[in-house]
Amino acid sequence: MAARIEGAYESARRAFASPTLALLHKQRAPLVVTLLGALFTADRAAVPVADAHTEVGEALAGLRSAGFDDLPDASARDLCRQWVAESWLVRQVADDGTEEYRLTAHAVEALEVAWRAGGPRTRVTRSRLRTLLDAVEHLAQEVDPDVSARRDRIEAEVARLTAELEHLDAGGAAPTVAEDQYVEEAENVLFLVRELPADFARVAESIKGLQREVVAGLRQDERPTGEVLAAYLERAEHLLEATAEGRAFAGAMRLLADAERLDALAAELDLLLRHPYADALDPVQRAELRGITRRIETGLDAVLTQQRRTSHIITTQVRHHDPLRDRQVDDLLREVVSALAAWVPSSRRGQDVTALRRLPRIDAGRLRETTWVPARSAPPADIDVWDDDAGADASLAGARAWGGPHYARLLAHATEHAAATHGGPGGAPADELDVAAVFESAPGDLRRPVDLLGYLELALGGPGTDAPGLPAESTHLGRLAGVEPEDAVDATELSVVTATRPDGTTRRFAFGRTTLRLTPPEGDR
Questions:
Q1: How many CA atoms lie within 13 A of 222 on its CB side?
Q2: Domains of the chain by start residue, with CATH
Q3: pLDDT tens column, 206-255
Q4: d(C-alpha 320, C-alpha 298), whole Å
Q5: What is any Pfam family matched here (predicted)?
Q6: 202 burial level (CB within 10 Å; 0-12, 13-18, 19+)
């Protein structure tokens, strides 16, 4: 009996020494709970430091103007610093470089205890017992190794669901719930959800504590640098498995990482809120139900952010770890502490201290040297010359030779060809020209495959009429040539020409006989 009482008393003392109960036991606990509850909400897990100081100051001013005289004289900044020192707030640097406050797990638990004590009494007797029974039944089924018993349970469940399905197929009505049961079940859900913020905060704080432990152990580690790098980098990659809270969170992550499950949860909550019985809940409860999915996502994001930050800090510390330098700094600090311990008892207040007149000479020993290696200063090897690059013409003229048709030159040659073949010098050009004949009579640089396409475009109504050197009033080929495209091609006769590329290779092309009209008809003149 005495031993049990002593153990219970020690447990109670440890509980009341925790920051959670210390906050609730303070003289100004109502003020702290009110300010923290107003500053941090389910949608606002972190508050910038400057905003927090401003809002706390405005809240204190509002309370003073309302007639409350039992408020502290300290400023909002001092109050926030005090809350950080008492482990109710944590001050950290966000990813964008701004400083922000977050509630600790102890503060979240204290706010939840205060809310339960001052809020309405929840009616969760039936639903809470059912939650307990379901949890015990599920755990017993998971740990039971009896295969036959598991088969019997599955068959019984299948039979029950089959009977329910047959009832619905026969036109039976779906089961309904009473309004009291709806409200009771909803309050039980809210009761369970209110535990989540403290759980998420506890996991994040366990990772933060592990970070301090790892960094402190790294500074005291005297193993070779290679072993230290391997061990601590491995530890940084598996932070969640290093603590009991982290392992539990990893299991929850496997459950909540499925996006379809979260979408289904949001759809089910929407169904609950659209039910007529939802009007029996007060607006605060409906808002909490609506924000369950967001609260879960916010908690997950906070833990994962802390994990990434801790991994980055540990990795940075390991990469810049210098055991020799750390040991030298530790030895120097110990010498300073020893010298102070020896000097302080024999000194008096206001005693002069002899200043250091000159710095002592450092005993550098043998400096590390690196010899110059000529091979490391050699220029890089020449770039390989590929076979297809040899003799390539990279000039502007060479690039233009492989370019598109020169429409102005094509029309000029067509005009010269018409004058030479029909009218002679100074003679009138013919109304219609054979594209194949015009192309075959062209010089070598105008007998490329693209030039043949250019003549065909001019004959059939293509973009060549917009080329420089053509009449400004010519807006399309039909107007220039005075014919429709179907009138310019005679599919019964076949023309064959030989085109020459700029590299000297040739290609033969066959196409229906096509005519080019250089002068418009009488009606268009």
A1: 3
A2: 20-118 (1.10.10.10), 195-337 (no CATH), 404-524 (no CATH)
A3: 777 777 777 777 766 666 656 666 666 666 566 666 666 666 677 677 76
A4: 33
A5: DUF3375
A6: buried
